[in-house]
Amino acid sequence: MRLDQPSVVRLDVTEPGSLPPDRWPLTVPAVAQFVAKGLPLAPGVTFLVGDNGSGKSTLVEAAAAAYGLSPEGGTIHGQHSTRATESPLGSLVHAQRGVGTRRWGFFLRAETMHSWYTFSEQLGGPRFHELSHGESFLAVVRHYLTGPGFYVLDEPEAALSFEGTMGLMVTLTDVVAAGGQVLCATHSPILAALPGATLLEVGDWGLREASWDDLDLVRHWKTFFASPQNYLRHLAD
């Protein structure tokens, strides 16, 4: 997928000049590139893959806010907030929906799901608190990621085992087949291997398209599994 290719949802910053270039979040290369060029998303699933602090969560948070989703997670029908920590980027992003896209979406943000469960339950939603951590994440995606819509996920693998991650991949495949579009930030090499997904590697260079084999994430894991002691022996130093 080329970054100038037509998409179902395109994200653009409407007033880039209102963000100081020498202050966060524009000091993050991926955010600066996004503000300057926007982000036309490919149909299907797009993964943002990169190290801690590379800007993945800032980008998906802004995308969710632009689509009308609460920065702390949930659907377009409920604005849940406990402590606002999001960047000002979301208020400046415009989400342009393609013809035929449905006004439905969900934002799963791993770090705020516990409080969102309580919020949802108070509104008569499913009792996710009664499930295990991983089971609740899978139940959420199976319940809310249905059909045409825009779905934003921030490190959904945080609660999942290997089998649970595979289960999430099945759900994502079903969502795409039903006409949904997904933007997901992840540290999981398993999740990033989803067939047909677009991979955008996030780092000091900004945003760049990559194949699974060329991701730094994948190379690190392959090297570690080949010889764990080459990494672990340095922990005592």
Automatic annotation (TrEMBL):
MF-aspect GO terms: ATP binding; ATP hydrolysis activity
Membrane topology of this protein: Peripheral membrane protein
GO cellular component, one term: plasma membrane
Single biological process term from Gene Ontology: iron ion transport
Statement: the UniProt record of this protein carries the keyword Repressor: no
One Pfam assignment: ABC_tran
Main location: membrane
Location(s) in or outside the cell: Cell membrane
Keyword annotations of the record: ATP-binding, Cell membrane, Ion transport, Iron, Iron transport, Membrane, Nucleotide-binding, Transport
Domain AAA+ ATPase: 42-207
InterPro entries: AAA+_ATPase, ABC_transporter-like_ATP-bd, P-loop_NTPase, Siderophore_ABC-ATPase
Entry annotated with the keyword Nucleotide-binding: yes
Name listed for the protein in its UniProt record: ATP-binding cassette domain-containing protein
Organism: Nocardioides jishulii
